[in-house]
Amino acid sequence: MKKIEELKxxxxxxxxxxxxxxxxxxxxxxxxxxxxxxxxxKAGITDYRAFxxxxxxxxxxxxxxxxxxxxxxxxxxxxxxEIASWGDNVYVKIPIxxxxxxxxxxxxxxxxxxxxxxxxxxxxxxxQVRNVVDSLDPNTSSYVSVFAxxxxxxxxxxxxxxxxxxxxxxAAPAAELIWASPRELLxxxxxxxxxxxxxxxxxxxxxxxSLVGYDLDQYSLDTVKMFYADAQLAGFRx
Length: 238
Description:
globular, 17% strand, eight-stranded parallel β-barrel, alpha/beta, 8 strands, 238 residues, TIM Barrel
């Protein structure tokens, strides 16, 4: 098994809790950060602009992705231009469709032509990947974010799809594929094995990195001790 420092896939921390984001930012193996409106809502954020600009005062030398939140493409464009202006390390997340399932490809092309750094998000099919790659400026840094974890939630193995997506992205040399929404630490190693460029990982999964390579006999014993201790603390009797 590879050590974390031997992996080629870049690990991005995914979250919206300021303290957690700053904690992960300080770790040398975290190469970038992402967030989204759902994570921000869960973190209790109410002022979108203020939160983003505040976090950028501390994180300005690693890629950081913020998402537009309109359902109208003209308003998405306005938001994207503003968000992009907040820093050279900022990438603008554009959803693959709006809620009416109207595709974002024309907007992506328009923004890409203006050299906006994009993170096109919520993709789940290879057709979507192909259309996004066709819409990008091949020479402008960007991310194509495929939600492999959500694909797995439906019972499909995401590895073959992600492997094909890696090949599709060769047509856009400046673009990188993101394995998004991982469900377990193993996904980091799967992403690395197929040559995926980036994987976004939540803090709860990142905190399991200390277990990489851990002796399984010892881990078995640790588990037995946990069950025993919890039974004692609960005061169970038969």
